Each structure stands twice: as C-alpha cells, then as structure tokens.
C-alpha cells in the first residue's frame, strides 16, 4: 500500500524511481564557488537518504568534506519534440555525511547502492571510494509547466522511505 502523499509526492517518487543520475552541486573547498558534477545515486529507504559512492580523489568529495551543504538536481529526460519547460525535476537541498563502513548506516548505504548498481559492486572495495549520504532538508519540485512547489523535509523523507522498487524492503 502506498503511503498517503499528495499527487505531486507520487510524481516525485516516480521521478526518483526512474532516474539514476543527478547533478550534484557543492561549494568549492578553496574558493567557495559553486561546483557541479554528474553522479549516480541510490535511495536508502531504511535511512531515508540519497546514497552516492564517491572517489576521495574527486573535487566534489573534497568539497563535501569541507562543507556538508549540497544540492542535487534530478530531472526527467528530454523527449524529442516535447517542450523542455515541461520536464519534471526536483532540486534537493541536503546535508552530506560519510558513514563509517562498518556502521549500520554504512552497511545500509552499501546495500542500497549495490542493489541499484550491481555492476558497480567491485568499486565498493576500492580504497579511495566511500559512501556519502545526503539527507534532504528541503526541495523545490517542478512537476511540469506551471506546477511548482516547495517540499518540506518530512515529505521528502516519506518519499525516500518508499524506495525505488530496486531495493528489498528494510529488514528483508
């Protein structure tokens, strides 16, 4: 049974379920300037967060270690001939953390990521990579032209708890 969500909450869940990459915005550790990169993401329904698997050599990792504030833009793909102004999208504001690999949060992040990206399982053993979790603090959702709203952290957590359908339920 689907949790009680507004219509746009279900649209948000569908967007998160069908997209696997996002634009990650961080603040440059040395200059404070905005920096954006593309990242694959998973959803940890148990911890109600977004999971990234990042190299310690990447600038965005250094940036997040210096300033935990992040932004994540997830957008539907363009459709040839369709207006781009109608593209569903969400910009999440979030706080990043790096759970210890042997902690419950670290194990949960690992399980969620490998479930969504089984082809990347070998990368989880590479020494310079780590899981970074993003806990949304708010968001701005565009569900189509003329359909925009701010989304509170509690509703985002409810949507994240629904997972992506790629993952077994918590405790399974």
From TrEMBL:
Name by which UniProt lists this protein: Pyridoxamine 5'-phosphate oxidase
Record-annotated Pyridoxamine 5'-phosphate oxidase N-terminal domain positions: 10-141
A Gene Ontology term for the protein's cellular component: cytoplasm
Pfam families associated with the record: PNPOx_N
